[in-house]
Amino acid sequence: WTFDISNPAAFPYTNPKRNAQKQAPVFAPGAAVTVKTKTADSVTVEFDQAAIPTPNPGLEAVHSYRFDFYTAAGGLTPVKQVKQWSDFMLTPRLRKPKLEQLIGGLEPGTNYELRVYAYGSFQECSTRYLAVDFATN
């Protein structure tokens, strides 16, 4: 990249310009999260990746995902929270439509609701989440 530093107002990546362009990721209609395997204290899930909606002048990518685990006993507060990078560092043609995540540290014999949220490059969170209910063995 080459930038003409004589005119800072024309810089393409100023904070005000980036803040005006940033958008929260969205999951496509029909996107889902599924349980692939589970044990007494872990689960492996697969989920459809979210995307930054158009127009996307900064060519932003989905940065990461957050997994919130809820139980009836925990109420409205997640009892466990885990984060995972997306594959944003890859070129668009190499990004996978689905990602997989193994998450441990769960309680045996417990019913969970898992919610998956997507984050953009500037940490704006998706308003819609993917959800699945499951029980550990």
Summed up, what is this model?
With 137 residues, this protein is mainly beta. It is built from 1 helix and 7 strands, in the order H-E-E-E-E-E-E-E.
Topology diagram in text:
Elements lengths: L14 H7 L11 E6 L4 E6 L13 E9 L9 E6 L12 E6 L7 E10 L9 E6 L2
Antiparallel strand pairs: 1-2, 2-5, 3-4, 3-6, 6-7
Please give a structural write-up:
By secondary structure, this protein is mostly beta strands. It is built from 1 helix and 7 strands. The chain has one helix at 15-21; strands spanning 33-38, 43-48, 62-70, 80-85, 98-103, 111-120, 130-135. Strands 4-3-6-7 form a 4-stranded antiparallel β-sheet, with no helix packed on it. A 3-stranded antiparallel β-sheet has the order 1-2-5, with no helix packed on it. The protein is elongated. The termini are far apart.
Distance between the termini: 53 Å
User: What is the spatial order of strands in the main beta sheet?
Assistant: 4-3-6-7
Strand content: 35-45%
Q: Count the strands?
A: 7
Q: Spans with pLDDT under 50 lasting ≥5 residues? A: none
* Helix amount: under 10%
The helix tally amounts to 1
Largest β-sheet summary: 4 strands, antiparallel
Residue-averaged pLDDT? 93
Radius of gyration: 18 Å
**Overall SS class:** mainly beta
